[in-house]
Amino acid sequence: DAKTTQPNSMESNEEEPVHLPCNHSTISGTDYIHWYRQLPSQGPEYVIHGLTSNVNNRMASLAIAEDRKSSTLILHRATLRDAAVYYCILRDLTSGTYKYIFGTGTRLKVLA
Amino acid sequence: DSGVTQTPKHLITATGQRVTLRCSPRSGDLSVYWYQQSLDQGLQFLIQYYNGEERAKGNILERFSAQQFPDLHSELNLSSLELGDSALYFCASSVSATQGATEAFFGQGTRLTVV
Question: Do A45 and A60 contact (CB within 8 A), yes or no?
Answer without folding.
Answer: no
